[in-house]
Amino acid sequence: MQALLTDRYELAMLGSYLREGIAERRGVFELSVRRLPPHRRFLLVAGVDRVVRYLRDLRFSDAEVDYLRAQPGLADVMTDAMEVYLRAFRFRGDLDAIPEGALAFEGEPILRVTASLAEAQLLETFLLGVINTETRVASKAARVVLAADGRPVFEFGARRVDPAMAPHAGRAAYIGGCAATSCEQAGLTFGVPVAGTIAHSYVLAHVDDGEEAAFNRFAESFPQGTTLLIDTYDTRRGALRAARAGAAVRAVRIDSGDLAVLGRDVRRILDAAGRPDIQIIASDDLDEHRIRGLLEDGVPYDAFGVGTAITLTPDSPSLGAIYKLVEIEDRRDVLVPVGKRSPGKPSSAGAKQVYRRLDASGSFVEDTVRLADETLDPPTDQDGAPLLVPVMRSGKLVRDLPSPTEATQEARERAVQSLRSLPDGLRLLDAGVSPPSPVVVSQALRMLPARGD
Amino acid sequence: MQALLTDRYELAMLGSYLREGIAERRGVFELSVRRLPPHRRFLLVAGVDRVVRYLRDLRFSDAEVDYLRAQPGLADVMTDAMEVYLRAFRFRGDLDAIPEGALAFEGEPILRVTASLAEAQLLETFLLGVINTETRVASKAARVVLAADGRPVFEFGARRVDPAMAPHAGRAAYIGGCAATSCEQAGLTFGVPVAGTIAHSYVLAHVDDGEEAAFNRFAESFPQGTTLLIDTYDTRRGALRAARAGAAVRAVRIDSGDLAVLGRDVRRILDAAGRPDIQIIASDDLDEHRIRGLLEDGVPYDAFGVGTAITLTPDSPSLGAIYKLVEIEDRRDVLVPVGKRSPGKPSSAGAKQVYRRLDASGSFVEDTVRLADETLDPPTDQDGAPLLVPVMRSGKLVRDLPSPTEATQEARERAVQSLRSLPDGLRLLDAGVSPPSPVVVSQALRMLPARGD
Q1: Tens digits of per-residue pLDDT, B208-263?
Q2: Residue closest to B206 by CA, chosen among A354, A157, A126, A336
Q3: How far is B198 from chain A, CA to nearest CA, in Å?
Q4: Is the bond preceding residue A436 a cis peptide, omega within 30 degrees?
């Protein structure tokens, strides 16, 4: 089902590798982000769990092989041997990864795949697509959650993205710290809490008796508690009506207008109506900057609904992760470092490991990117702990996979720790003057000679 | 499989509608784009075919209903009656739509759903997600294709987006005029031509004997013709090696560096090596502006590979389509127009139709948005032709669905006509001074009183 979620060139290369007899050479590919995208000081890793399930389950179906055989562009290499190869395909390599919910920075391998050249090549597109999407969303969600300073953030952005992506975005946003998603499928697939009450259409649908009746009816439908959307006609009047719609009303949401003015006015109206217990939720194209602005101005919002900013990240729509061959077996079966030298886009040769140093209080201090097999002699407390952990060995899982719900929860809990460990400089939301990069590259890695042309 | 690709609030409202006894009231919802996003002068509609298949197939599985029954947030409304409703759910309404491949502008309903309030409400999230994604991608692809001025554009952006979205993006890009996509699944599902040859990793993998051997081996693998990527180490040297790799080499691709300088140099090198027949393809974060710049400067590129710009549209990451209730039956079973008045985000009441006027040469002149039931008295040639066409009636397809491949081809052919019909003012790529909006709103629609609060 997922085998053709790959780029044509992966299959063209695979065909050539088979013909040339080098398909089984061992290679190491790393997935990393060359530079943090604009407006980001850290990444929060998400998507690894999906990658692992993909690697575990990857097979070519008959229909997929038949389709490939019929493609004129592949006819030169779609031999019987390639067909046999594809039908027998299993991922039999190793995967090391930075765990979901951990911080990552520029130049750090988030995933490291060690496998036959043909296998590792084929995975490129899927792995990039997943990490580019989920890490992008989780990293942005974390910024929004930091800005909300303890108040819940609800991710409402399913409608802005492809429906097939929405559950994954909901999961990534939850890992990043959102309290819930609007996407129901994220609840079913990943156990993410799901939230949502009414749209403007609900109020409009009560055309005979208007907003007041709509509010009363909805509160009657949800006696255990609900939130009312109060800006369909007149937000202040809506607030008053919500205050009078009974004890089931736990919150109101404002989705348009001057949120700073309206937030204060609605608070006053609710309080004056004897409902200081009703919380106020803001939405309407919010992002971390608008949320921080509202809170710094003391506007009394209790929670935020954020859509586009989290799922489409318009300030940095592309994470720009890359997947590069860093080592390959030569004809003597020795793994040698390789890297391209394309101007402005060189790749860093050699299999890597990241060592993360925290201070005594658990605060993040610095990462050192080293060769994976670099010996620390003598090892000291200053070396930090290795960040990439073994996930698969020879195609087998190193530990039983937790359920998707458990994996999601684990990632979210790790993210809480990660965000707590962020020093102030990396927590800043504004671009402004950047703090020095928290990533050091070891001398051994810097001096590594890449074999090449 | 797709029923829970919806927002929680759609289900919460559905529950309340059932409890209140208004679920079966007939309503009209329209999906439209309030304002064209920045840097866009037209939209090219895509995604309708997927919407239709969704409406045709939408069912709640047992697992989905069981999940919903277990959700605490829905417990108040998840009655036996709602369970029965969901298990029997079918879309039984009407769908009218602007066909895929047609132009659309601000304020025009791309989809109009006329159905029971409960049904039409439930669809919102999926319909928005699909049109927001596919129309966004197709519209951008069309701009890039216009900039390329007849030269092929290959969409290479699968790796930048969620893998589950990639085939749909490939289809939308193809509708927008791209010659092919890199996404193999778009070929299998939608019959989109798929293209791609080698990555830098292929060259790096030939560590024993280098780029020259890599090129020769790949050309041997694809005797019917292929494209070589020449910037792994040194682009000019790569060009020379490609020129000497045999007749199978039909094109070279440059993916880094100064594309203006390199394009000219590589052309000279290929020509001097007796290979004027080898075409040159540029990639590397291209968009319509960079492509136009290269071509205006006379850089001799023959084709372009474009990824991020098409699938993530960083200049306008969000299309911002909305789905609004515009008419609802009142208690006397009369459909009445409704609209919200939220500041800055009002909705336009009343079911609408768009009349498109072309001149004698087939060039686009103007759209008029009218009430769907507005009588044109007397009708004249100046009225234009209605743009939204009936697609479903009472849940049944008005015509047999073409295969996904046929539907995609049909949409692409319509898009060719649409782009050909664009007047110069709407063809401009730059923001600059905008031409006057090509959309007129009829007096009857402007004067329509919305029933409300």
Answers
A1: 999 999 999 999 999 999 999 999 999 999 999 999 999 999 999 999 999 999 99
A2: A336
A3: 5
A4: no
Structural domain includes residue A353: yes
Whether B131 and B145 share a structural domain: no
What is each CA distance from A243 to A251, A262, A275, A327, in whole angstroms?
9, 15, 6, 65
* Residue indicated by tokens 């004129």: A72
Q: DSSP for A296-345? A: HTT----EEEE-HHHHT-TTS----EEEEEEEEE-TTS-EEEB----TT-
Closest CA to B235 of A15, A345, A320: A345
Residue B161 in tokens: 């987006």
Contact A188 B164 (CB under 8 A): no
Indicate the pairing of strand B43-44 with strand B103-104.
antiparallel
User: Which of A248, A277, A311 represents a domain boundary (last residue)?
Assistant: A311
Q: Are B153 and B120 in a shared domain?
A: no
Q: Is residue A108 part of a domain?
A: yes
Residue after which a domain boundary falls, among B259, B279, B311: B311
Which two tokens mark A353?
A: 């490991």
A·B CB contacts under 8 A: 372
The boundaries of the domain holding residue B165 are: 139-311
Same domain, A302 and A421: no
How far does Cα A408 stand from its chain's mean position?
11
Is A166 within 8 Å of B5 when comparing Cβ atoms? yes
Is residue B372 assigned to a domain? no
* Rounded Cα–Cα distance for residues B116 and B91 (Å): 9
Residues A34-80: tens digit of each pLDDT: 999 989 999 999 999 999 999 999 999 999 999 999 999 999 999 99
CB contacts, 8 Å: A195 with chain B:
8, 73
Q: Kindly report whether the peptide bond that precedes residue A402 is cis, defined as omega within 30 degrees of 0.
A: no
Same domain, B149 and B179: yes
- Helices A48-57, A117-148: axis angle to 10 degrees equals 150
User: Per the domain annotation, does A3 fall within a domain?
Assistant: no
List of chain B residues whose C-beta atoms are within 8 Å of the C-beta of residue A198:
9, 12-13, 16
Spatial CB neighbours of A345, under 8 Å, sequence gap ≥ 6? A34, B255, B256, B284
Name the pTM for this structure.
0.98
DSSP B183: B
* Contacts of A276 by beta carbon, 8 Å cutoff, 6+ apart: A270
